[in-house]
Amino acid sequence: MRHRIVGELMTSAVVHVRPDTGFKEIAALLAAHDITSVPVVDEQDRPVGLVSEADLLLNEAAEEDSAGLLLTPCLSPADRTTSRATTADGLMTSPAVCARPEWTVVEAARLMHRNHLKRLPVTDEAGRLIGIVSRSDLLRVFLRHDRAIREEIQGEVLARTMGIPAGAIEVLVHEGEVTLRGTVEYRSLLPVVERLCRGVDGVIAVTSHLGYRTDRTSVTPG
């Protein structure tokens, strides 16, 4: 099976800033390009951090309420330092968490989830910035047509990978949800078929109505 990779989904023209880029210029870039964060790169174009809208808003969050109606803001020492920064090197979250172009959607999604990120800079083997991938980019795999998903399951998963004869399993796909009906040789193959089908790009869920001919896990050697 072939999975879509980050290099196919990322945006190559990346809006980025240098460590000495000023607060106001960063805010203008975010607004002009309708993005929520921007990578900070050094002289070799290697990401060293990321500045987000949240980082910029700390400047406002740290302000005292002139009307005296709000409580004094309680910020951590790190956030207090960021709130006083005027350039990217003081505003950014560092180090930069990056992805590689050969990663699968699953790898990139797990890294985003683990680090609570919406975007990942993508770097080459030398660590240079070559793109950026967002949550919405990763979600594009779920826009695959049902027919393409069904053909991959029938051809790649069942026939080529599992060696299951054509017609032995009926594959129905509707809006990315897969339904399997038919019979496999061994009971132990049921979870394998389901797992491989779930791993196909664009599959949202798999419902199995598969049966089996024997409960043996394999053929006993003669």
CATH topology call of the largest domain: CBS-domain
**Which band does the percent of strand residues land in?**
15-25%
Unreliable residue runs: none
Corresponding CATH superfamily of the largest domain: CBS-domain
CATH top level of the largest domain is Alpha Beta
Mean pLDDT level: 88
Count of DSSP strands: 7
Relative helix content: 25-40%
Radius of gyration: 25 Å
Number of helices: 9
- H-E order: HHEEHHHHEEHHEEHE
Spatial ordering of strands, largest sheet: 5-6-7
CATH architecture of the largest domain: Roll
Could you describe the largest sheet, including whether it forms a barrel?
A: 3 strands, mixed
Q: Tell me the structural class.
A: alpha+beta
Structure description:
With 222 residues, the chain is of the alpha+beta class. The protein folds into 2 domains: 6-141, CBS-domain (Roll), CATH 3.10.580.10; 144-214, 2-Layer Sandwich (Histidine-containing Protein, Chain: A), CATH 3.30.1340.30. The protein is 34% helix and 22% strand. The chain contains 9 helices and 7 strands. The strands form 3 sheets. It has a 3-stranded mixed β-sheet, covered by helices on one side. The longest helix has 16 residues, at 146-161. The two termini are 33 Å apart.
